UniProtKB/TrEMBL annotation, chain A:
InterPro entries: EboA_dom. It comes from Pontibacter fetidus. It comes from the Bacteria. This is EboA domain-containing protein.
TrEMBL record, chain B:
Transmembrane segments: none annotated. It comes from the Bacteria. This is Hydrolase TatD. Keywords: Hydrolase, Metal-binding. It comes from Pontibacter fetidus.
Length: 296, 308
């Protein structure tokens, strides 16, 4: 992200904070922001960053759909739907840190990562798409997706545009697979469709085979990034789904075929005219599949 | 009945222990920073250890419906490596104000060397500045003198005795600690520290004010159920429910709660856990395990409630 957008994001977050926090908390944050702005070494950031919950609390910040839309206008893909007050304060503090010198800036922020607790890690990873010098944090973010702490993982992988903009294909593919592996909905991954690729399709198909061999099922959402990359190796998987007694699996198969330019996939879809019709009429899409998966 | 174990080293314990503790009624625990059975040789080992106390271990506990807090400090044994101790002192301010850090600990004396004395004093100052309780480890050898010295030095550094929990007491030290206004914690640890039949006698003699029971369970032969077992034994021996509640729950909450980081609502308002949501098929739950979902019920059944 270009740092020229920083002031508008900052103003947006500050307004949000003042709408939700007590007046004491607002003045506490203002005072600390001033100190951080003039801090040469970043030392002024460390204490208020960790102490934020003690002064501003941890209440959830509820955003209206209009506010969420505004957030997205300021920063495409930014979706602070489940944030807390301390997280908001921490993000504002991070954005107050002088950032002209990329090396100094990233060194200070990475030091925070190195000593962070769970709440701090969630705040840091969810703030990544707002920070200047994103290239400095790619390694940290790919390290982050190795975490076993569910809430920390979600802060990176879900509703966060940073991975799709910065991850290598290998890191991206691992993230998508791990999201499925840990039982979370990949529909919450920003840029899921834009970054689908043949190697990911192969990995997901292999994963489905592994699960099937063990007598387990896979989420029908899995076939979403696979669809655009159907080929002769993967097509038998789709045939298997069409033959399933599970209606959602048949729907997923049809959706996958509809995304593909592979002629045999088109032929397969033609054999299921009702599903094809529903897709063409907009009655069946991947959100429909995701919603069903969440209800189940 | 609900229990708090305010001294237990969970990084050395298994998930079976967590499950058994939850079942026995333990709702919250405090994990003091300690040594790992052998000395660390690098600063990074301390940093990662502190991080694990506020990160992964806390998350792991939450998967079993137990609230995990910790105290952060440089333990007395490792204070003797002065070069390293200096570096650790610079690291501590980055950790003591983190969420869920309820004190500076466990600190104090082991061999009562000059280096131990130096870093004990520096950490007392740090705790006073941060307005945090202090959890004191009293020495195994020359215990009585070491305990008295720990308290005198704390007073010399202007700490309020009400902010100081003196740990690992026994029949020989309890009177001095209580008379000076400090909290007196007792560790029920088989063979080396206190047995819980002795603990019953102490509560009979001294009552329940400012007395706290813990397990200090760690990587040695120890018992993570020491607090509920001792409570059960006390009940059997005729100690009142009210006194048991104080020494096995309320006093731990009142003393460490002074940090502002530990509130009863933390566990009373959040009694449902969902292992499947956060960790399905990953880390804690392995293949074939059924996740625990929903309201937690406790039902302690012990083969024996006596620890000698």
């Amino acid at each position: 992200m270009n740092s020229k957008y920083l002031p508008t994001i900052n103003a947006f977050l500050e307004t949000l904070f003042s709408q939700h926090a007590t007046t004491e908390a607002v003045s506490w944050l203002k005072e600390k922001q001033e100190l951080v702005r003039t801090s040469e070494t970043g030392k002024a950031l460390y204490l208020p960053f960790s102490a934020a919950p003690r002064y501003v609390g941890k209440a959830p910040v509820t955003l209206t759909s209009t506010a969420l839309q505004t957030a997205n206008e300021h920063r495409r893909g930014f979706y602070p739907a489940n944030w807390t007050l301390d997280q908001l304060a921490r993000t504002i503090l991070l954005l107050s840190l002088p950032s002209e010198n990329a090396d100094n800036y990233s060194k200070t922020v990475l030091k925070l990562f190195g000593t962070a607790d769970m709440g701090e890690l969630v705040a840091l990873y969810a703030a990544l798409p707002l920070l200047p010098h994103p290239e400095k944090f790619v390694h940290q973010a790919t390290e982050g997706i190795r975490t076993n702490m569910g809430n920390v993982y979600e802060a990176i992988a879900l509703h966060n545009p940073f991975p799709s903009e910065n991850f290598s294909e290998a890191a991206w593919n691992q993230m998508v697979l791990k999201t499925i592996f840990t039982g979370k909905s990949i529909s919450k991954i920003y840029g899921l469709d834009a970054r689908s690729n043949p190697d990911l399709a192969r990995m997901l198909s292999d994963y489905a085979h592994e699960r099937w061999a063990a007598g387990r099922t896979v989420t029908p959402e899995l076939w979403r990034p696979v669809g655009p990359h159907l080929n002769e190796t993967i097509l038998p998987d789709i045939k298997k789904l069409f033959a399933s007694f599970n209606e959602t699996e048949q729907e997923a198969a049809a959706l996958a075929c509809s995304q593909s330019t592979y002629p045999e996939a088109q032929t397969l879809l033609d054999e299921h005219p009702l599903l094809k019709y529903k897709i063409e009429e907009g009655q069946l899409n991947w959100s429909h599949i995701s919603n069903k998966a969440i209800m189940a | 009945m609900r229990f708090i174990d305010p001294h237990i080293h969970m990084t050395s314990r298994t998930t079976d222990d967590y499950a058994a503790m939850q079942k026995a009624g333990i709702v919250a625990i405090i994990e003091p920073a300690f040594w790992l059975g052998q000395p660390r040789t690098e600063l990074g080992s301390f940093k990662d250890y502190y991080s694990s106390l506020i990160g992964w271990e806390r998350f792991r506990a939450s998967q079993f419906g137990i609230k995990h807090y910790c105290t952060i400090g440089l333990n007395s044994k490792e204070a003797n490596n002065e070069a390293l101790a200096e570096e650790v002192m610079e690291l501590l301010p980055m950790f003591i104000c983190k969420e869920g850090v309820v004190g500076v600990g466990e600190i104090g004396y082991d061999d009562q060397t000059a280096a131990e004395d130096k870093y004990y004093r520096l950490q007392l100052d740090l705790a006073r500045e941060a307005n945090l309780p202090v959890q004191i480890h009293t020495p195994h050898r020359d215990k009585k003198a070491g305990t008295i010295r720990s308290m005198e030095v704390a007073l010399e550094h202007n700490l309020d005795p009400h902010m100081v929990i003196v740990d690992h007491n026994n029949e020989e030290t309890v009177r001095d600690v209580l008379d000076r206004g400090f909290w007196a914690a007792f560790t029920i640890y088989p063979n080396t520290k206190m047995g819980n039949e002795r603990m019953v006698e102490i509560v009979k003699q001294y009552g329940s004010e400012r007395i706290i029971v813990n397990s200090a369970a760690d990587w040695g032969i120890s018992d993570p159920l020491a607090v509920p077992k001792t409570a059960s034994l006390m009940l059997e021996k005729g100690i009142s429910i009210d006194d048991i509640h104080k020494v096995c729950y309320q006093n731990a909450l009142d003393s460490f709660g002074q940090s502002g980081q530990m509130k009863e609502s933390d566990w009373l308002e959040n009694t449902t856990i969902d292992q499947s949501q956060k960790l399905f098929n990953n880390s804690i739950l392995r293949g074939g395990q059924l996740p625990t979902i929903g309201e937690i019920r406790t039902n302690p059944v012990f083969d024996s409630n006596i620890i000698r």
